[in-house]
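We close this part of the discussion by returning to an individual protein. Part of our work consisted of pairing the sequence of a single chain with a tokenised description of its backbone. What the numbers capture is local backbone geometry rather than side-chain detail. The amino acid sequence and the backbone structure tokens for this protein are reproduced below.
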Amino acid sequence: MVKPLQPIDIVIALRLSKAPEARYEQLSADVGVSASWAHASVGRLQAAGLLRPGSRSVNRLALREFLEHGVRYAFPGASGMESQGVPTAHSGPPLAEHIVAEDTVVWPSASGQAVGRAVSPLYERAVELPNRCPSLYEDLTLVDALRVGRSRERKLAMKELERRLVSAA
């Protein structure tokens, strides 16, 4: 029986797009999950066709398509009240450099540097990514722009994600 994708699987796929040779121990350290969680995620990604069969090589075309057309429906970002937290979506890097917005979007965290509208992260340890794995943090803020952003933000985020997926190939 094929298990459905979980939000953490998108994080694992983004990390594998940059480091397909990473051992499970390194992958789990970068993402902040156990090696067994990373292994299970790889299995789900392979079953979904987001990794090439029998490998940990990302099917970049399929991942791009899922990010552009599916991620906001499969894993919608529930917005909450104003909160202290870690900037994400158009408020986080790299979109914050290109978008001037009155509203700030954050992952709730007492250790965060910003205050804004709270949005649920794809996984609970995402707030650690700025220190744990900065490039993955940036990729995940772009995914959040696809999940909760307006049309302009989604277009800019997708353009940047495409550039990153191609340059990582």
Observations:
- Residues 7-73 form a domain with the Arc Repressor Mutant, subunit A fold (CATH 1.10.10).
- The chain has a mean pLDDT of 94.
